[in-house]
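Subject: sequence -> structure tokens, single chain

Hey, anyone have a minute? Need the predicted structure for the following. Not urgent.
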Amino acid sequence: MSKHTRATAQALLDRCGRTYAAEAGIRLRDAPSPLYQLLVLAHLLSARISADIAVAAARELFAAGMRTPRRMADATWQQRVDALGRGGYRRYDERTSTQLGQAAELVLERYKGDLRRLRATDDPRARLREFPGIGPTGVDIFLREVQGVWPEFTPYLDVKALDGAERIGLPASPRELSRLVDDADLPRLAAGLVRVNRSRRTAEEVRAAVPA
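Reply:
Had a minute. Here:
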């Protein structure tokens, strides 16, 4: 791997390598509460709405105490709508409030409130899609972020991340990209690649930060 390629990967981490979980205030680890919070965030990020708004909405839900499936399920529909609205998540707030309540009940009933039980199933990807509001995009978001604590999914770099890699001249291969960083930094790499895929300006800033 060339020095320029490695320098580009480092510039990406430095400029925009913060995970979406970290932005939402989630201290991600293999434990019930942070894993559930990541599921909520993946749900919110799945909608056709800006990532900044989705992250802000997640922070508002958590600030209102809805950090666990039990607290989410016990909250009223209106309390969830109000928290989403404070985060600016207004276009989808009513439907999302309903889906969040349904998903929380499913986590409680099927996994006893602990998504580590989902991890142990025969097909975690398929199980994730059973949650209301979590489609293929939501699965990708969840697994991109969780690979740091569920290493069996590394390297998880989906189409959005690979398109971002191409935009800044990095190899569009999960295996080759994974060689550029430590395993612990793969979620950061994935988040940065998604950001440059979404923003031409961000991609230009990363390229400009690479030493000549």
